[in-house]
Amino acid sequence: MVQLLKVSMGLLKYFIFFIFLFYGCYSFSQNKNDTNAFQYNKKWFISSAYGVQISGIKSEDFISSNVTPSFLLSVGTWFTPEIALQIAYKGFYFHTISDNDKHYYNFIYGDVLLNLNRIFNFANSIEGRWSIIIHPGAGYFYNNYYNRPNVCGNIGITNSVRITEKIDLFIDVSAIIGWDIYQGDEDILPSCIFGVSYSFKSVRL
Questions:
Q1: What pTM did the predictor assign?
Q2: Contact 197, 45 (CB under 8 A)
Q3: Spatial separation of the C-alpha atoms in residues 40 and 85, rounded to whole Å
Q4: Which residues span the domain enclosing 16?
């Protein structure tokens, strides 16, 4: 319990850091191009993705019996072309190399999305249709196998391609990071998923 409290406080510090990161990037993006900020409509989006995940990143973890499905559902909004916030859900279960059980879990978290193409003025990459997005965050992880909650971090990178004005296809590589997810110390659940994102408002570039 004491260790869990220490981990939770540590992740809280990261969460506060991400809030300051969001504020700093938002201020930077507003000051960098005021005209573009005024022309930008807040773009709400919903995304869904499906792929695979494993428990661990050591060489012995990369075996077929350790591969499980990974599901993502998220909703968010772009405040500027450079920065967004999203709330997401990940599930449903993972395997470990130490047993044959299904370790069911639910992970609800928030992310800060940073569009690197926009931040570094790569807006003309493939006529503005291609984006590289990093997304650090943190949230509530409930381990149904252990019947206890946890606070975990989430970090990832998304390669997104705009198909139409409202539809993007993306590949996301990310990882849930926390304490005692499955082996009693620092644990990681990396995943690779393919998905689609639908935008409810468009961006006037």
A1: 0.78
A2: yes
A3: 16
A4: 2-199
